[in-house]
Specification:
This protein has about 300 residues and is α+β, with helices and mostly antiparallel strands. It has 3 domains: about 130 residues, no CATH class; about 45 residues, SH3 type barrels (Roll); about 90 residues, GMP Synthetase, Chain A, domain 3 (2-Layer Sandwich). Helix content is about 55%, strand content about 15%. A hairpin with a 3-residue loop joins strand 2 and strand 3.
């Protein structure tokens, strides 16, 4: 009996779609390189007609050749990621890191090609670029440090794309990781850009890596609005009956945390059958609205009784 293939995850499908576009671009580069080599070998007079000197040809061949090699290496590495991703051994950060390294190397190849156009020796080029890089590092050491930290995050498995995290005072889902910052989408659909230096020096809570099924919701209500905590608990359980298939039976608890002069702090808890951030958000939304409705009905009854 033929074994069915494991369905691809959303992350892997996105990677495959992106890779298909990159493969088309790689094919175009190979065609251009092959065309230049063919013309140079069999029709050199055409290059003279176009007034392309040997220096220009060598620079173009150097850039395209190494660019293609880098692209092939990147494609093979990403294919390795896709195979390992089925067993959950690698995160999407791995692909981001590989793509970033490939882009940086391509920039170096481009600079070398430009140096060839101006007939600059490799020794002179690296000497110049080293002095320039040192000056940049001194003037913008924080930015360089941020980029290094970005690479560390990309190749770590502590946080990944689509993880729901809390970084300092900010909480949301990671939608992108770059060399300079991570992009966080909060519950209000605002995009927050957090520098990588802050991510590595601040306490980070990753709710996705450590799935939590026990959900807690803190409530502060007026003492006059809640005369019977058990009645409020029963009211909330009835309202959340629509989620009975997602919440464990008999897991609801409403605890009194603190009693103040004019208010009471309550903690409402329940246990999900499976961790689900979207479901948790919907249940909390219904819970809060149910509490508001309960308080409104209690205050209305109290006013009618007077």
């Amino acid at each position: 009996m033929k074994k069915e293939k494991e369905p691809l995850s959303l992350v892997v499908r996105k990677v495959l779609e992106y890779e298909n576009r990159r493969k088309i671009l790689l094919l175009i580069k190979v065609i251009i390189l092959s065309g230049i080599v063919y013309v140079q070998s069999f029709h050199p007079e055409l290059l003279k007609t176009l007034k392309l000197t040997q220096i220009y040809i060598n620079a173009i061949l150097f850039y395209l050749g190494f660019n293609i090699l880098i692209s092939i290496g990147r494609t093979l590495t990403v294919s390795y990621f896709i195979r390992k991703r089925r067993s959950g051994k690698l995160s999407y950060n791995f692909v981001i890191g590989i793509n970033t390294i490939a882009s940086l190397v391509k920039i170096v190849i481009l600079l070398l090609s430009i140096g060839m156009l101006f007939d600059i020796s490799l020794q002179g080029f690296f000497t110049s670029i080293s002095i320039f890089a040192a000056a940049i590092a001194i003037l913008s050491k924080d930015y360089v440090s941020n980029m290094i930290n970005g690479m560390i995050i990309m190749f770590s498995d502590q946080i990944s794309i689509n993880d729901f995290v809390e970084v300092g005072a900010f909480k949301g889902k990671i939608i992108n990781i770059t060399l300079t910052n991570i992009h966080l989408l909060n519950e209000d659909d605002d995009i927050i850009y957090i520098p990588n230096n802050i991510v590595l020096t601040t306490n980070v809570i990753n709710y996705t890596k450590r799935p939590i099924r026990k959900i807690s919701l803190d409530l502060e209500v007026s003492l006059n609005a809640v005369k019977d905590v058990d009645a409020l608990e029963e009211f909330l359980i009835k309202k959340l009956h629509v989620f009975k298939n997602e919440i464990e039976d008999n897991s609801f608890t409403l605890k009194v945390k603190e009693i103040k002069k004019d208010s009471i702090w309550l903690k409402f808890q329940y246990l999900l059958k499976k961790p689900n951030r979207d479901l948790e958000k919907d249940i909390k939304k219904l819970t809060v609205r149910s509490v508001v409705k309960y308080i409104g009905e209690e205050l209305k009854s109290a006013n009618n009784a007077i």
